[in-house]
Amino acid sequence: MNLTTSRFASLVLFRFTGEDRPGLTASLSQLLAEFECSIIDVNQAVIHQSLLLGLLVRIPEEKDSDRVIQEMQELGTALGLKCNPKRIADEDYDLWVGRQGKSRFILTLLSRSVTATQFHAVSQMLADQGLNIDVITRLSGRPPRIPTDTLTRACVEFSLRGEPRDSAQLKASLLELSSRLNLDLAWQRDDAFRRSRRVVALDMDSTLLQAEVIDELAKEAGVGDEVSAITEAAMRGELDFDESLRKRVHSLAGLTEDVLPKIAERLVLTEGAERLLSTLRRFGYRTAILSGGFTYFGNFLQRKLGIDHVYANELEIIDGKLTGRVIGPIVNAQRKAALLDQLAQEEGVDRKQCIAIGDGANDLPMLARAGLGIAFHAKPVVRLAAEHQVSTMGLDAVLYLLGVRDRDI
Prior knowledge:
Strand order of the largest sheet: 12-11-10-9-13-14-15
CATH architecture of the largest domain: 3-Layer(aba) Sandwich
Number of strands: 15
Largest sheet: 7 strands, mixed
CATH class of the largest domain: Alpha Beta
Strand content: 25-35%
Structural class: alpha/beta
CATH superfamily of the largest domain: HAD superfamily/HAD-like
């Protein structure tokens, strides 16, 4: 066995590898039960029917630990498994227990297809930061053997322990790798709030929808190019949002209200929007639109997608025509952040249990207030400022950041 015997060494780590099949863990634990052992820690993974099983066991002092080890090895052989036992010294166990108090983080890697280059770059970055990888889990489903034209999703989740050596450098590395290797990386502290998100607030235009609705209205009014240029500058944070909105809405004066349903029907949802909303609803999340756009279209999406709350700007309509004004306070950046707080209060949750998703500069305060703020296919200024981003996949990629697996859906 090549194991140093000590009557004080009652802790043994059993590591088993081999072909997986039902009943292996039951057989091994039955033998340990006969020796009245305690299971201190256990970890099991199966990759394409290949089993990796670790059992950290405390053997009672009155039991013969050498005999336990020998019988576990013999049983492993009989089951077709290779058993590699290792005695754990008291001081090593104490160090292991001490490490349990270290901070834990989750790093989520998103890509259309995870390549070895991407995987190496991410794992090397983690090593450079002195972080231990406890568990690596694939959240996405298995891709088809023969590639198709269907858009694919791939996600790998790293469960990490320790504190980064340089948090600023870590964030810079996440951005650099995302840009260079065409992937998304989401870094979250693994705490109780991460595991208990309850409210999801989404921007509407260019987030839930592929278009900016005001630009579609402007096309109907014959001022499409002019308004589109203002919208783009506003979303980049180059213009005051309130002023730019009033100017754009003013250009719509005289447009008849019968164009609203026509535009609503031709709006295209962002990839993954329906899958995201239906899954959130199934899992009991509350959802909201917080938009600098318009309530008519927010209400249209609310009926279509089963969204719980809508907050947006109200177009003034008199005698069947748009007046070129909005009614009430403008839903700008500060208003969105305040509405997120209001949502949390109404739903009876901490704001850290809220998720916010948006693409424009007017979404930044909302993203910062949320427990999880996600810049979705966002403008450069937003990607740089936001803590998290999704730029390579559809809206349903947000589910991976919640730890949802494809098989759960």
